[in-house]
Predict the 3D structure of the following.
Amino acid sequence: MIRLNPIFVRIGNVCKREKYRFLALLPLLFLTAVVNAGDIIPGIDDSAAVFDQSALYNGSDSIPAIEGETGGYITFAARFTASSQDLSASDSGAVVILECGGTSYGSGLYICSSNIVFATKGSSGVSGNSYVQTDLNDTDVSDNAAAVTLGVVQEGTATEVFASLDAINGVLTYALNGEYGSVGITGTSGTANLSGNESVTFLAPVPTDPGWLGGMTNSISVSNPLLDAYLVTGFTGVSGEAVRGQIFAIPAPENVEPYSIVVSKTEVDVQEGGYTDSVSITLSDNPGSYPVTVRFTADDSTQLTPAQVEYTFDTSNWESTWNVNVSAVDDSLREARYHETIYNIEVITDIESQYYGFEIEPVTIEILENDCGTWAGYTEGDFNNDCQVDIQDLYLFALEWMDEL
């Protein structure tokens, strides 16, 4: 997987790592979308899916029609882990990941020569059964067939991918393991039949009639072997690894917020032996195969209790909020009336995680002292807040008095 050097972007109290790799050839004209945290696509709520499965699937009449003036958008999203057998098979023919429609009207995601490829037929508005893609990066669908190579698939590594076709404006937006890109597709029509025969295949053995396979070529004599419907094979995968396939009749948003860890506060106030406070931590997206541990460690372990606390987010709890209670140690030392310490925040996860490399601003804690005694530290007299009334306070008082004369 290609990894970019992280760029840290400060947005309010959130430190985020920007991982976009934009390849835009045309300005994106997508409709503004409300950004909700989806499982695979951060910018689309899962409840909007017209197809959503977490197991191998092959069936007809699986989704509603996507066509006409109210259509124009189709978005595929998939999570899978390819085996060595899958990648080897992809050298002689496509391995199906997720598709709908057929070789006349339809689209799909396939593994071709160890790359994930988006293929489409008929999105020009004209039946594309007898036409072929010139290669795996044919971005002109005016001849009824197009394909885009999205990136390399790694053996044994969890893959998350989406491809979103905007047939109205002629743009394909995609992401492979968090690396975002877009490419112009010429010749598309927003009134095209994007769902084809409304059948769906997800990671399953290919149907008896290869003409069902969305975006493929239904002609063995002239097709690129890697996009030939008669050479497509089913997915093998790695046993026990999570899979999910989704299809949406809406576009993915132009700018999806990058993965983020949100800390509710960067400053809190507490009192020795008195009031406490709390800081909440949330994740923007599912960490998938790589759990994320967030660890709070006090800069001075004698000031905060507990001195260290941590919580691990995984696929089962990532949508929950972790509340960190902040409490000062009630010691017997006479310290400054207001003294500070910090909680350093560390993010611990696998190097392949989308959350790897995050840096989060420490939380500053201001502690109110409670050991000033009966006379020492009397509020009106302790001008420098050191819990003592002495000559320094008299000096500050004199300066203030002289300033008012």
Notes: DSSP finds two helices and 23 strands in the chain. The chain has a mean pLDDT of 82. The first helix runs from residue 84 to 89.
